[in-house]
């Protein structure tokens, strides 16, 4: 069962990453971000929101090692922590932060709990 959920969660990670990788303008608009002055913001979308998660998901599937899946969990935990801090300090749109942060926290919980337990 763990193998199946790891595979599905990795595929979700890849799918989320593909939005940032292949559709950075769309992803930026969903996240209420807009490139200003230069297109460096699009580069950042492709890199940190896209390619990072696409390759992490692919690598975990390729390696098939519990530690590889756990490392994706730590990446999602960092993202969820950043959202939690932003929730308190930055007054972002609450609904979006709760939805995106909830998804990140759930994936972090699965990847870490199932693979380090």
- Supply the helix-strand structural class: mainly alpha
Work out the radius of gyration: 15 Å
Main beta sheet = none
**Share of residues in strands:** under 5%
Unreliable spans: none
The shape, in one word, is globular
Folded structure, characterized:
The chain has one domain (about 1-115). Helix 1 packs across helix 2 and helix 4 packs antiparallel against helix 5. The model has no long low-confidence stretch (mean pLDDT about 95). The two termini are about 15 Å apart. The relative contact order is 0.15. With about 120 residues, it is mostly helical. The protein is built from five helices and no strands. The protein is globular and about 45 Å long.
Task: Detail the topology: elements first, then pairings.
Elements: H1 2-22, H2 24-30, H3 40-63, H4 66-89, H5 94-116
In short:
The protein is mostly helical and 117 residues long. Helix content is 85%, strand content 0%.
List keywords for this structure.
single chain, mainly alpha, 117 residues
